[in-house]
Design brief:
With 465 residues, the chain is an all-alpha fold. It has 18 helices and no strands. 83% of the residues lie in helices and 0% in strands. The protein is globular.
Length: 465
């Protein structure tokens, strides 16, 4: 009955209502995750100083790698689990869930051990100067201890969503973030532990989220029956999981590679404060983009289901609705950051030089950010309908194909300003390619002649009472 209801909902419910129903829990979870990063940086900037933000920025690519691995296993496992639950092969679904959870912990332990042994070498590779390396070392040496918990939580959240329990995934993220926001000032200000205190607060918060999800699985609340022997990785299933999750890893790892290159280029052309400025801007961009990925999580099953059912008019409506909403959201963030950049920066620091660098930089970086919704939804559409090649290319286009080369080339002519200009140029390039590819695909399906979204389909219009 549940499957029948889900089918009817995806195939018949108003696109606007459907997108809201599926997106809002994911958006809340994404906003919570972004809020954690922003608040963490505010406490460190206010409680320790601007160079500590620079140290946090140096450590960030390593955290992104951990998240990329957790997301890769989680996304791949979610696909294997949901397909096998749907086909009635519950034992394979259980084994896939156990393999994913066991693998995430094992990889987390390996990363923790390798990171502790080669910590200084990693930090220098990531662009740490003699001034920043002390802050980065203090922070990352503690974060590494929590690596298995972070990896498990990232994987588990995707698995829980594959069961259709988005609320549980959202609660686990809320628990970790709220606790981190409470603990940060305790460790930084009351206990005077500086940036190390922020890291301890993060690890405790991640451990709490881990405990919540672990109890969810072992107390029988999950649809998956995870027995102890299922946690031993099955290499046949692991190969399938990784193959499916690989595009997610490439996108996430691309962000980590970009961060490493950015740190090194900023050190050359702007110094430690430029790295700190990028750290602040990156947090604000995450706060802008994370809710958009919540829309993506709601859009994906709608587009995929209706494409499979050959209801191409609903496919077009879902694309248009998702682009309208993501564009409106990114445009709102654009206006706030363009008009009030100094107020936003003062939340993080009182250092005038850092504020000046950050204000000038952010106005360049976000210049065409309202276009980003087209790029994100377009790339997701191809993933939703099983077209791996365009999905992979478009997913990589902004960061890997455009931004990384531009960051390496433009500063040779324009210095530090060239690094910031690379962002809008990359956005224009990736959006243009995505739009052309998307229009070509819609034309091949005979969709471009269809009418625009009816008012009842628009997510922004509320239902009559």
């Amino acid at each position: 009955m549940e499957k029948h209801y889900q089918d009817e909902m995806l195939g018949t419910m108003s696109i606007g209502k459907l997108l809201a129903k599926l997106s809002i829990p994911a958006m809340i979870g994404m906003l919570v995750n972004a809020l954690y990063n922003v608040v963490d940086t505010i406490y460190i900037g206010r409680g320790v100083g601007p160079l500590a933000i620079g140290g946090l920025t140096i450590a960030f690519p390593f955290q992104m790698i951990i998240m990329a691995i957790g997301m890769t296993i989680g996304v791949g496992a979610a696909s294997v689990i949901s397909r096998n639950l749907g086909s009635g092969n519950r034992k394979k679904a259980y084994r896939a869930g156990g393999t994913a959870l066991g693998t995430s912990v094992i990889i987390g332990l390996l990363i923790m051990a390798g990171g502790i042994i080669y910590l200084d070498q990693i930090l220098r590779l990531f662009g740490a100067s003699g001034t920043l390396i002390g802050y980065a070392r203090e922070y990352l040496s503690v974060i590494l201890i929590g690596t298995p918990f972070i990896s498990f939580s990232m994987t588990s959240n995707n698995i829980v969503r594959s069961e259709g329990k988005a609320l549980i995934a959202m609660i686990s993220m809320l628990i970790g973030t709220v606790l981190n926001i409470i603990l940060d000032p305790v460790f930084i200000f009351l206990l005077h532990m500086g940036i190390r205190g922020a890291a301890i607060a993060t690890v405790i918060s991640q451990l709490t989220s881990f405990s919540f999800l672990f109890l969810f699985f072992i107390t029988g609340r999950s649809s998956l029956k995870i027995k102890l022997h299922y946690l031993i990785p099955n290499f046949h299933l692991l190969k399938e999981i990784i193959a499916i999750g690989l595009p997610a890893f490439i996108r996430q790892a691309g962000g980590s590679i970009l961060a490493v290159i950015m740190n090194n280029m900023l050190l050359i052309y702007g110094g430690d404060l430029a790295i700190a400025a990028y750290g602040i801007i990156n947090r604000l961009l995450m706060f802008t983009l994370m809710p958009l990925f919540g829309i993506v999580q709601g859009f994906q099953p709608i587009a995929g289901y209706n494409y499979g059912a050959k209801k191409f008019d609903r496919v077009q409506s879902s694309i248009k609705s998702a682009i309208i909403v993501t564009t409106a959201m990114s445009a709102s963030s654009f206006i706030i950051m363009m008009v009030f950049p100094d107020i936003l920066m003062r939340m993080f620091t009182t250092d005038k030089e850092l504020i000046d660098i950050s204000v000038n930089a952010i106005r360049l970086v976000i210049m065409v950010i309202p276009l980003i919704g087209i790029q994100i939804i377009g790339a997701t559409f191809f993933q939703s309908v099983g077209k791996a090649v365009p999905s992979l290319i478009l997913g990589m286009s902004r960061q890997i194909i455009f931004l990384i080369p531009l960051v390496l080339i433009i500063p040779r002519f324009l210095g530090l300003k060239g690094i910031w200009i690379a962002f809008p140029v990359a956005d224009i390039g990736s959006t243009t390619i995505t739009l052309l590819w998307l229009l070509k695909e819609l034309k091949s399906l005979g969709l471009l002649h269809l009418k625009t979204i009816e008012p009842t389909e628009n997510i922004l219009i509320k239902d009559k009472v």
